[in-house]
Recover the amino acids of this structure.
């Protein structure tokens, strides 16, 4: 159970407070409702590049990191296809510094040319380090455009290619800021050794004067229903053949979302899971096998991927995956196996409550979903799932015509 | 105007309570936290190092939960997973650890499985065969990663053919035999070589459960000698692995140094922080934030049981590798010749104190802090000294520490990619 209080400033900024007197620390987490899905084709990678620029100084404060480190704080941020999330942890006694820094960069950035030039380079190096200079690093650059044809999930957060990042202009940066970075488009969570009254006062003082800005109305292209099996074969300098099969699954708020999550657990969570035991241990077709979901706000992906044991044919390996998918789509999961994955989900949620930062991030994310209270009832959705639901969802999903398969082959 | 702020004044550590099982096995308990869960670690010294069998201890740790007299691999995993618990096996340079994460109420159901793993594991041949095959495939992938190659070659250059540096290759896996695994298991996994650390909700009742299951005589009784290592390596080596296709070069450099038991260690940690130990460090400010050569660069001081080492690691654009190396050398030189300004030093003091405070988040982190000192043979005075040093070190001392411990010419340098 994660307790919280909630209020909204007159400019539209939503604020949540989680009081945890057991820690001497505080967290300030701010989620902006913007991600790579809000980018235009041809100018991709921008939400993430922008996240880097948020550390390049704001209108009244030339350096973001330095004053924070000076008060004993640390910070970081991440960008996904859906959101951009910034967080600070610092000694609770110095919480006002976090308000000062975070509110100034919501008010306006410094828009320094030097910062733009440097961060373009830094992000290009990040692109190389994570996606281009690694074996299998570019899988998601290939898989996304195979699975999505219209929706902006067809590109990865890092962007479609290096050139689009290299070409980013200051006018694009300013326009992006104006469109997405304002109080109406953000959720602020303050947690730790703080009091709600104190947070209210500080929020009014620092964020209250920021103009509410224009409301961004998201109107993304809808992905048409997939009706044919898709596949792509890639040859690369990697040591092992690999396969990635992606199925469409519903958006995060769909009532079946948790069913998909449990299906992925049955198939691949831990060494008691089905794919691990059947495909890796018994049949020895794969040296590595996983099933997982992308947890996307819009229509997401359910992915099965694996690296083949040397000498195993792709045909055999692929058929074996389908055999397992067929099984879960036609046979009821037994009670013990279902209880197992539910227990695991429950314990993972309890463990997540050990971390102040995780609690703050979760509150912000569930508030974005519509109501932070959802966080505390999420487990009930898992516990109420039946074997029949699992079978029926699996039967609806694991069909060839809903699949996109990437064959990632080792150069001979 | 920047708000007023305070330097962190009090940092409170929760020291564990020491108890003993009926067989004398020491158990350290941090009974704290709100959630009804616990982490129990069974920590064993690495023993009987044999350079001819570099994977012996690693494979035993990896396969220990793959079958026992009572349970096969799948039954073990199911028994743990059914209760929402997690079992982790971890090998590190000095210790192997079997860790159980569990809701406290499920300990009576899960601990007997753990007992079986630690007392009667059988290392079935077919499990070993699958392990070899899959580990070799994983290694094949790692060997294509420049940062992995840099790390592996650096460790070997510094530590030679010891557990800290041994050069694992595909053939190393072929040599593994079931007999060797059993021999190692019987030597290492016994109560006389074990320390238990429990953190979370763990009261007297939980201790009673633990004692009932683990307080008797353990099965393994073979002779063992805790590893004693020597490192005879040359300083200042340069290794270059050319990868003509590389977009980035992985750089790793450093040298043998002091560990936590040395009086200078806190000063070296502070120096390291200034140099490459946090986001605002000299290396990050110059090589990422000014030049844009890399996504990240950092340095660290690692404290092992029988050695310490200093290291620096980054991946930089292949076209700017030479420039990055020159900038790194320049930054080292600056620390050895010029005093750190008061402004920078104050910032680093506050940052390090805040960071230490923030690292004491929950019962697990308090237990981790205890492990740092306990296994180095130190007590909580170490942290008092560390905090005192962070608050009072002078710029002159930092410079002298750099002269003593940061020497470009003495560093072994590994570059994988292009220069």
């Amino acid at each position: 159970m994660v307790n919280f209080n909630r209020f909204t400033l007159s400019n539209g900024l939503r604020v949540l407070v989680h009081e945890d007197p057991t820690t001497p620390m505080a967290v300030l987490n701010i989620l902006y409702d913007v991600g790579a899905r809000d980018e235009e084709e041809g100018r991709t990678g921008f939400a993430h590049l922008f996240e880097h620029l948020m550390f390049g100084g704001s209108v009244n404060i030339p350096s973001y990191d330095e004053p924070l480190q000076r008060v004993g704080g640390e910070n970081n941020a991440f960008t996904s296809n859906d959101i951009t999330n910034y967080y600070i942890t610092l000694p609770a006694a110095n919480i006002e510094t976090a308000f000062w820094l975070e509110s100034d960069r919501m008010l306006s950035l410094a828009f320094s040319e030097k910062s733009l030039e440097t961060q373009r380079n830094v992000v290009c190096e990040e692109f190389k380090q994570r996606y281009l200079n690694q074996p299998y690093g570019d899988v998601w650059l290939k898989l996304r455009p195979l699975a999505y044809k219209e929706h902006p999930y067809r590109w990865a957060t890092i962007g479609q290619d290096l050139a689009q990042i290299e070409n980013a202009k200051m006018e694009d940066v300013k326009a992006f800021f104006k469109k997405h970075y304002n109080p109406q488009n953000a959720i602020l969570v303050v947690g730790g050794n703080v009091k709600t009254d104190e947070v209210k006062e500080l929020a009014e003082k620092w964020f209250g004067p920021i103009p509410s800005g224009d409301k961004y109305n998201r109107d993304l292209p809808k992905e048409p229903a997939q009706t044919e099996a898709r596949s792509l074969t890639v040859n690369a300098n990697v040591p092992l053949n690999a396969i990635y099969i992606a199925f469409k699954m519903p958006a995060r708020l769909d009532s079946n979302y948790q069913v998909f999550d449990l299906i992925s657990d049955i198939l691949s969570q831990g060494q008691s899971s089905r794919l691990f035991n059947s495909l890796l241990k018994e049949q020895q077709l794969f040296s590595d096998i996983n099933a997982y979901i992308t947890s996307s706000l819009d229509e997401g992906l359910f992915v099965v991927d694996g690296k083949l044991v040397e000498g195993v044919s792709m045909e055999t390996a692929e058929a074996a995956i389908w055999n397992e998918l067929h099984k879960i789509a036609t046979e009821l999961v037994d009670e013990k196996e279902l209880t197992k994955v539910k227990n695991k989900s429950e314990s993972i949620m309890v463990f997540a409550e050990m971390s102040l930062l995780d609690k703050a991030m979760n509150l912000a994310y569930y508030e974005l979903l519509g109501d932070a209270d959802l966080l505390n009832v999420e487990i009930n959705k898992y516990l109420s799932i039946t074997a029949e639901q699992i079978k029926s969802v699996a039967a609806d999903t694991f069909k060839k015509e809903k699949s996109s398969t990437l064959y990632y082959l080792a150069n001979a | 105007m920047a708000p007023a702020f305070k330097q962190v004044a009090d940092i409170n550590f929760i020291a564990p309570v020491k108890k003993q099982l009926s067989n004398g096995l020491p158990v350290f308990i941090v009974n704290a936290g709100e959630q009804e869960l616990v982490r129990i670690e069974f920590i064993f010294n690495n023993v009987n190092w044999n350079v001819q069998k570099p994977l012996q201890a690693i494979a035993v740790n990896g396969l220990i939960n793959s079958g026992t007299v009572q349970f096969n691999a799948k039954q073990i995993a199911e028994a743990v997973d059914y209760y929402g618990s997690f079992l982790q096996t971890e090998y590190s340079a000095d210790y192997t650890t079997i860790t159980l994460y569990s809701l406290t109420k499920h300990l009576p159901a899960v601990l007997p499985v753990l007992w079986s793993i630690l007392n009667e594991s059988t290392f079935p041949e077919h499990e070993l065969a699958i392990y070899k095959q899959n580990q070799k495939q994983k290694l094949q992938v790692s060997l294509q990663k420049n940062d992995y190659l840099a790390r592996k070659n650096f460790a070997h250059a510094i530590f030679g053919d010891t557990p800290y540096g041994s050069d694992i290759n595909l053939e190393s896996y072929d040599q593994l035999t079931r007999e060797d695994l059993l021999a190692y298991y019987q030597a290492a996994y016994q109560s006389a070589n074990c320390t238990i650390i429990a953190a979370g909700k763990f009261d007297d009742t939980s201790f009673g459960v633990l004692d009932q299951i683990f307080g008797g005589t353990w099965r393994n009784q073979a002779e063992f000698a805790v590893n004693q290592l020597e490192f005879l390596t040359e300083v200042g080596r340069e290794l270059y692995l050319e990868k003509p296709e590389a977009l980035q070069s992985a750089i790793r450099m450093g040298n043998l140094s002091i560990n936590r038991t040395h009086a200078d260690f806190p000063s070296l940690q502070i120096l390291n922080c200034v140099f490459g130990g946090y986001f605002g460090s000299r290396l990050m400010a110059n090589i990422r934030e000014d030049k844009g050569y890399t996504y990240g660069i950092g340095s660290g001081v690692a404290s092992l049981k029988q050695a310490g080492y200093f290291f620096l690691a980054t991946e930089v654009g292949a076209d700017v590798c030479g420039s990055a190396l020159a900038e790194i050398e320049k930054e080292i030189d600056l620390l050895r010749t010029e005093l750190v300004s008061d402004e920078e030093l104050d910032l680093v003091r506050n940052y390090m104190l805040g960071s230490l405070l923030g690292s004491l988040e929950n019962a697990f982190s308090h237990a981790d802090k205890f492990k740092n000192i306990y296994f180095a043979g130190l007590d909580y005075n170490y942290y008092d000294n560390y905090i005192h040093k962070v608050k009072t070190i002078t710029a002159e001392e930092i410079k002298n520490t750099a002269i003593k411990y940061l020497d470009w010419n003495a560093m072994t340098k590994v570059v994988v990619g292009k220069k």
Observations:
- The first helix of chain A runs from residue 46 to 53.
- The two ends of chain A are 54 Å apart (CA to CA).
- Chain A has a mean pLDDT of 97.
